[in-house]
């Protein structure tokens, strides 16, 4: 076996994993290394660990008539004995799987498959290897060559056998990487459609991603900016508080409870900022979105304006209860609210007690603090 050819091929195989191009070159390199005249690499995943649907599939061929491939896909794949042989011999190279020593001895489906598909292409000798789990994954390589120059040699079979485990691992890795790329793209679209700004930070507090809303705030608000890929509040005191919350989130401090910050300008709107740590991946989850360690949520804030409908949805309140809570947070007294709503003070007190029971809060000041530091105070426009 020529070790140089094997090592070169292994490097090329892993280099193709996760990329949209490169597998055709891998196939041609293996064809040259084994003395084949044609071949194909196929890989399909359904569910399982790939989680990517068809995004990680590979289908490349070399020197095979496209009409032959179409005929195989449409009808004659059902007569192909190769999947069953690969399933019975995972990771092993199967030599002349269809024809055996003498094509003239073939019967039944194997004879039909040879006469209809292989003979017209002058495919006499074949090498198959891969993995096949019906319903989940089907991956591998098929190499062919005509009657002359004869069967594959033991050295040529050994080359493909040495490459097979690397090819199988690279195809599985390719499917997973493609699935992650698809997931990241979907998450980016989802973030860009959110009505609040979201900034993702890595462990060095550098900005990894900012959605459209966050970029809009950073362009237009005098209260927040970026400097050297990091978030900065304009005021010195505000910036110290912001950096402290980011540092605490990155350190995942157990006592880190005050995650919110309000930046107020001379005129509305101000900014509501909340910093939250991201869950660290399990050691076995090597495909976690590496680098993202904290999320910064940014919303506009206009003092004195609260949406009672938002409060109702957030805290599971009735319309009457959410309206009372909104007015209370705006600074009105309970008697003022009762007068405005033309109800007795006793009714207003009863409604307030119901709200506090629902939120498991015993003091009115804690109730106001909860709403003022929560997402109900964000303006989603």
Tags for this model:
single chain, 381 residues, alpha+beta, Beta-Lactamase, Arc Repressor Mutant, subunit A, 3 domains, 5-stranded antiparallel β-sheet, 12 strands, 18% strand
Characterization of this structure:
- The protein is of the alpha+beta class.
- It has helices at 3-16, 23-34, 66-74, 82-88, 108-118, 154-192, 212-220, 236-251, 308-315, 319-329, 334-341, 345-358, 364-372; strands spanning 38-45, 58-62, 94-95, 125-133, 137-145, 197-201, 207-210, 224-227, 230-233, 260-263, 270-277, 294-301.
- The model is unreliable at 48-53 (pLDDT under 50).
- Strand 6 (197-201) and strand 7 form a beta hairpin.
- The chain is 44% helix and 18% strand.
- It folds into 3 domains: 3-179, Beta-Lactamase (2-Layer Sandwich); 194-301, Beta-Lactamase (2-Layer Sandwich); 308-377, Arc Repressor Mutant, subunit A (Orthogonal Bundle).
**Strand percent estimate:** 15-25%
Number of helices: 13
Look at the structure and give the mean pLDDT.
Answer: 83
Number of domains: 3
CATH topology call of the largest domain: Beta-Lactamase
CA distance, first residue to last residue: 67 Å
Write the layout of secondary structure elements.
Elements lengths: L2 H14 L6 H12 L3 E8 L12 E5 L3 H9 L7 H7 L5 E2 L12 H11 L6 E9 L3 E9 L8 H39 L4 E5 L5 E4 L1 H9 L3 E4 L2 E4 L2 H16 L8 E4 L6 E8 L16 E8 L6 H8 L3 H11 L4 H8 L3 H14 L5 H9 L9
Antiparallel strand pairs: 1-2, 1-5, 3-4, 4-5, 6-7, 6-12, 8-9, 10-11, 11-12
């Amino acid at each position: 076996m020529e070790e140089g050819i094997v090592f070169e091929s292994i490097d090329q195989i892993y280099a193709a994993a996760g990329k949209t191009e490169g597998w055709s070159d891998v196939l041609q390199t293996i064809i040259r290394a084994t003395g084949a005249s044609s071949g194909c690499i196929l890989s399909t995943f359904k569910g399982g660990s790939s989680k990517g649907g068809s995004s990680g599939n590979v289908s490349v061929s070399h020197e095979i008539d496209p009409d032959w491939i179409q005929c195989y896909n449409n009808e004659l794949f059902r007569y192909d004995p190769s999947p069953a042989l690969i399933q019975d011999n995972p990771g092993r190279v199967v030599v002349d799987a269809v024809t055996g020593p003498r094509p003239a001895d073939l019967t039944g489906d194997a004879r039909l498959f040879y006469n209809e598909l292989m003979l017209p292409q002058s495919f006499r000798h074949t090498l198959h290897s891969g993995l096949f789990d019906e319903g989940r994954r089907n991956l591998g390589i098929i190499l062919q060559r005509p009657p002359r120059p004869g069967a594959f040699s033991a050295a040529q079979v050994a080359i493909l056998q040495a490459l097979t485990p690397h090819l199988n691992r690279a195809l599985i890795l390719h499917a997973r990487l493609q699935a992650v790329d698809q997931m990241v793209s979907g998450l980016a679209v989802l973030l860009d459609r959110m009505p609040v700004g979201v900034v993702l930070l890595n462990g060095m507090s550098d900005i990894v991603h900012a959605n459209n809303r966050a970029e809009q705030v950073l362009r237009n608000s005098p209260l927040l900016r970026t400097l050297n890929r990091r978030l900065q509040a304009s005021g010195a005191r505000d910036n110290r508080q912001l950096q402290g919350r980011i540092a605490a989130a990155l350190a995942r401090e157990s006592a880190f409870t005050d995650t919110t910050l309000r930046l107020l300008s001379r005129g509305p709107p101000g900014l509501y900022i909340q910093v939250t740590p991201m869950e660290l991946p399990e050691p076995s989850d090597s495909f976690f979105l590496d680098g993202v360690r904290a999320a910064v949520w940014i919303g506009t804030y206009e003092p004195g304006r609260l949406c009672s409908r938002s409060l109702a949805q957030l805290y599971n309140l009735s319309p009457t209860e959410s309206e009372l809570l909104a007015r209370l947070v705006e600074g009105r007294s309970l008697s003022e609210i009762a007068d405005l709503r033309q109800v007795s003070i006793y009714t207003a007190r009863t409604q307030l007690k119901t709200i506090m029971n629902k939120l498991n809060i015993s003091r009115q000041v804690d109730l106001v603090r909860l709403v003022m530091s929560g997402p109900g105070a964000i303006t989603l426009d």
